[in-house]
Write a structure and sequence with these properties.
By secondary structure, the protein is α/β, with parallel strands linked by helices. The chain has eight helices and five strands, in the order H-E-H-E-H-E-E-H-H-H-H-H-E. The relative contact order is 0.15.
């Protein structure tokens, strides 16, 4: 009887030890899709506010090559915003590959957290101290009153001002100066009028007279018109993508 009890106790202790030795599985965070420079998953911004902010972020990249993305999240999924932030930056690959010049402003209203995540290449400009001041003095006061749009815009504006002042705007200007000037290929007004009148006359003649040749001309004009529209649609549907940058955890966080 004693021997059986001892055996059961030893087996029980072995099971407990095996359970304690197991490492809990760590699941990868779920990231939203990078659908543009503003990813408003939490729905904190109006359509007009998203358009205006996107234009400012696009202008920043055009003049400095820095990529800045603003993202609002429904939830951090139980993770610290610092851990989530640098992983999101690496997942999206925001910033130029050779410069790691990416920035994220991450807002998680469910957890009442905000973070400015800074890529490797911008840590000298957007220092931890600078980003902390932006969060504490500009973003959080607005968030505490429920003004998410105002806090996001004001914080983004301050980040953009710092990035414009880091010296890369001068190099961007030099690149624009070195770029070849576009040739003036516009047609004279009189030639445009002649072609327009002639084209209308040809269409009217074809509509009245008919014939195989006229039908062929009409088909060619229709194909050209459709191809022009499809080209414009492709231009409008072009999406923003990360440039291959990386992150190492630089930046600051805050809560309200």
């Amino acid at each position: 009887m004693i021997r059986r009890a001892a055996f059961i106790l030893i087996a029980w202790l072995c099971l407990i030890g095996a359970g304690m030795g197991q490492t809990p599985a760590i699941t990868s965070p779920t990231f939203p899709a990078l659908i543009g420079r503003v990813v408003d998953e939490a729905g904190l911004l109006s359509a007009a506010e998203r358009v205006s902010l996107t234009a400012s972020l696009a202008d920043l990249e055009a003049t400095t090559t820095d990529q800045f993305v603003v993202v609002t999240l429904k939830s951090l999924g139980g993770r610290a915003i610092e851990d989530y932030g640098y992983q999101l930056g690496r997942h999206w690959r925001v910033g130029q590959k050779d410069k790691d010049s990416g920035v994220l402003m991450i807002i998680a209203p469910t957890e009442r957290k905000v973070r400015i995540e800074v890529g490797y290449g911008l840590e000298g400009t957007l220092t931890d101290a600078a980003t902390k001041l932006i969060i504490e003095n500009t973003i959080l006061p607005a968030f505490k009153t429920g003004d998410f749009a105002g806090g996001i815009k004001s914080g983004a504006d301050q980040i953009i001002q710092l990035l414009h002042g880091d010296g890369r705007s001068a190099s961007a200007a030099q690149r624009q100066t070195a770029a070849p000037a576009k040739s003036n290929t516009s047609m004279p007004v009189w030639l445009v009028i002649v072609l327009a009148v002639g084209g209308v006359g040809l269409l009217i003649y074809c509509a009245v007279a008919g014939g195989i040749a006229c039908r062929g001309i009409m088909q060619i004009l229709l194909v050209l018109a459709l191809s022009g529209r499809s080209g414009a649609s492709r231009d409008r549907s072009s999406s923003f993508t990360g440039g291959g940058g990386s992150f190492g955890g630089g930046g600051s966080s805050g809560s309200w």
